[in-house]
Design goal:
By secondary structure, the protein is an all-alpha fold. The chain has a domain of 124 residues: Alpha Horseshoe (Serine Threonine Protein Phosphatase 5, Tetratricopeptide repeat). 74% of the residues lie in helices and 2% in strands. It has a two-stranded antiparallel sheet. The N terminus is likely disordered.
Length: 402
């Protein structure tokens, strides 16, 4: 039972005590849901779920919409906490409970939690590789709310479609994925709401990536250019991030076509646009662009300049410890090590590999362990060349799209 405050005689007071009026119950429901959210941020997941359960227990039998709103929000938040605890089955059961309780309501404050529950259930099914069921959930959401012309539900329809497109792309159902992305662009491309434009931008970038998979490079670059044209002057981080992705992916395509000068110009554009930003999602794009530029310089035989670019990556981000940046720092170091070895600068190469090992030796993330393994293998090659040990070299310098 959740308690709040004390009476004058020192006894705890139930937050719902003497609050049978709808207005007071609404305030109590809001307070408790917000308290649960704070507890989640503090990592107190079990306490948070107890709070959410108390809201449902106290208000779940009521009929007033202003009270059921907080029941629905409590349930959705509980499902998210369960997902964080990897209790996916329990989380999906709660999502189903939200849809069952409120799926036939027409009020926005109840319909939105239904949409959120469906989106989250889809994500949980995706984590478990239950692709067919995940698709069905997104289709259910679009079927329920796809005819809406205004309101908050449009955001969830757009997200469901983008998620479905991404799922189809992972299944190599490229034509179907493109059709879904085109649907997003058709439905929401002329809207002005930031949350909808974010999904349009994602749909365009994802469509471009699928077109690259299909070998339709020129069509893909046209789509990436469309992203830059539509959103290149926007200031919202979520849109700037997609512009950065479009530019990086365009650079990768140009590099594949051996249009090295054009590719480097695109990567320089990324650094120019985002190089002074502090948001991690934008810093990551800068790191990726620089590493990819180094690869292009390598492919053009401009190894000295490539090393300079890799040093720039290390100089800019070497003190960061976020996984997404450590990945690119390690990539820059590994590529630099390969170039040093090609110049018979074995001691310098050894120092580079030791740097990677020092940075990543205590990390457990798979993507970082892969790069640690590369560093160890390449170090063994250098040791062998120096007469100390044996090993096998692994190639790893390839421009990366995301």
């Amino acid at each position: 039972m959740v308690k709040r405050g004390k009476t004058t005689n020192g006894k705890s007071t139930d937050i719902f005590e003497n609050r049978e009026g709808t207005k007071n119950l609404e305030k109590a429901g809001r307070f408790l849901v917000n308290k649960g959210v704070v507890l989640v941020k503090e990592g107190r997941n079990e306490d948070a779920m107890a709070v959410f359960d108390d809201v449902v227990s106290r208000l779940g039998y009521r009929e007033e919409i202003v009270l059921l709103e907080w029941v629905a929000k409590a349930l959705v938040n509980k499902s998210v906490v369960l997902g964080k605890e990897d209790r996916n089955k329990d989380a999906m059961t709660v999502c189903d409970n939200v849809v069952f309780r409120f799926g036939n309501h027409q009020e926005d404050v109840l319909i939105e939690p239904v949409a959120r529950a469906l989106i989250y259930k889809g994500a949980l099914l995706g984590k478990e590789g239950r692709n067919h069921e995940e698709t069905a959930v997104y289709d259910d959401l679009v079927s329920r709310f796809g005819d809406c012309k205004e309101g908050v539900l449009l955001e969830w329809v757009a997200k469901a479609l983008v998620n479905k497109g991404a799922l189809l792309g992972r299944q190599d159902r490229n034509k179907d994925a493109i059709t879904v992305y085109d649907d997003v662009i058709s439905r929401f491309g002329d809207r002005e709401e930031d949350v909808l434009l974010e999904q349009v931008a994602k749909a365009l970038v994802n469509k471009g990536v699928v077109l690259v998979k299909e070998g339709r490079n020129e069509d893909a670059m046209a789509v990436f250019d469309d992203v830059i044209f539509r959103f290149g002057d926007r200031e919202e981080v979520v849109l700037i991030e997609q512009v950065g992705k479009a530019l990086v992916n365009k650079g990768v395509v140009l590099g594949k076509e051996s249009r090295n000068k054009d590719a480097m110009a695109v990567y320089d554009d990324v650094v120019s646009r985002l190089g002074n930003r502090e948001e991690i999602v934008l810093i990551e794009r800068v790191a990726q662009a620089l590493v990819n530029k180094g690869v292009v310089l390598e492919n053009a035989g401009r190894n000295k300049e490539a090393i300079t670019v890799y040093n720039d990556v290390i100089s800019r981000f070497g003190n960061r410890d976020e996984i997404v940046l450590l990945e690119w720092i390690a990539e820059a170091l590994l590529n630099k090590g390969t170039l040093l070895r090609s110049q018979d600068r074995n001691k310098d190469a050894m120092a580079v590999y030791d740097d990677v090992i020092s940075r990543l030796g205590d990390r457990e993330e798979i993507v970082l362990l892969d790069r640690l393994t590369m560093a160890l293998a390449d170090k063994a090659v250098v040791q062998n060349k120096m007469g100390e040990a044996g090993g096998k070299h692994q190639e790893h310098h390839t421009a990366s799209a995301r």
